[in-house]
Amino acid sequence: MSLSLAADKRSFHIQTLETADGYPLVAQRYLPSGPVRARLIVAGATGVQQQFYRRFARFARLRGYDTLTLDYRGVGLSAPAELRGFRMNYLDWGQQDLAAAVKAMHGGGCPLYLLGHSYGGHALGLLPNHELIDACFTFGTGSGWHGWMPTLEGWRVRFLLNMVGPLLTRWYGYLPLKRLNMGENLPLDVYRQWKHWCRYPRYFFEDSSLPELAQRFAQVRLPILAANAVDDSWASPGSRDAFMPGYQNAPWQGRDIQPNSFGMAQIGHMGYFRATAQPLWVEALDWLSQQPQRYPQSPQGVAA
Fold first, then answer.
1. 296 CB-near residues (< 8 Å, 6+ apart)
2. What percent of the chain has pLDDT over 70?
3. Alpha carbon of 3 to those of 189, 193, 284: distances in Å?
4. Looking at the domain assignment, is residue 198 inside a domain?
């Protein structure tokens, strides 16, 4: 299906989501011009603004998906005026912020899908309302442990987290990733929890202070496909296979992506949503549409 994204620039409207704990989030809603075949939430990666996913969201919109992107608290349009002194729990991106998106998008008589990227695949297991989602496809989800990375990348990550990070956060009061050209600035608590969990091969599942996480992830039973590029140095297939068994009762499957199989020279950790990645998007949306649906839709679809 040939789609002209260049002609679809003004395709969304701003939507405010309010979480259960009262934090306002800024989201963008991409509504199809015709019948809605399904609703779709894009759950982004750590330190990545929702604008990064706009090409994919427009692509999904043109294929009939009512699509929502959001900035988690502390990031992008959902960040406070001053990040220094801002306190939060990294887990709240899933258990509060994404949960608000699920609540807003559920209903209307059509399926609800989750499309995750990196942390987005973690956030699914943190949702208190995951039962409202019919299926999840996630790109680049894995454990953040350096041992799953190529040797040089593993050293770089440890240097960032353990050497550079403490100095910068002491000076700024948050992790200024923008100055390092590594994404959005991160709240101090996100940095500290991320650093702590990256010590473990299975990430936060090995944090002895959070035994309840394993129980929460075990409650998820919806189908999941976790796709990881073989050249993804931050979330290799091995990293995925260390993390995803946490969804012990979900029918999850892993898929290894060879970039040249999709006409791409490389993918890495961020290439899943570059302009050249449309063949990946087609596969993801096709897979989601083939999953058993809790909410049958009429042959004509659902009006927006």
1. none
2. 93
3. 41, 41, 16
4. no
Domain boundaries, position 285: 5-144+210-289
The per-residue pLDDT for 107 is 87
DSSP 248-296: TTS-EEEEEEPGGGGT-S--TTTGGGSGGGHHHHHHHHHHHHTS--SS-
Q: Other C-beta atoms within 10 Å of 81: how many?
A: 5
Domain assignment of residue 130, yes or no: yes
Q: What total of structural domains would you count in the chain?
A: 1
Whether residue 169 is contained in a domain is answered as: no
User: Is residue 188 assigned to a domain?
Assistant: no
Locus of tokens 């953040």? 144
Q: 0.85 exceeded by the pTM?
A: yes
Q: How far apart are the first and last CA of the chain?
A: 21
Rg over alpha carbons for the chain, rounded to the nearest Å, is: 18
* Displacement of CA 266 from its chain's centroid (Å): 20
CATH number at 31 reads 3.40.50.1820
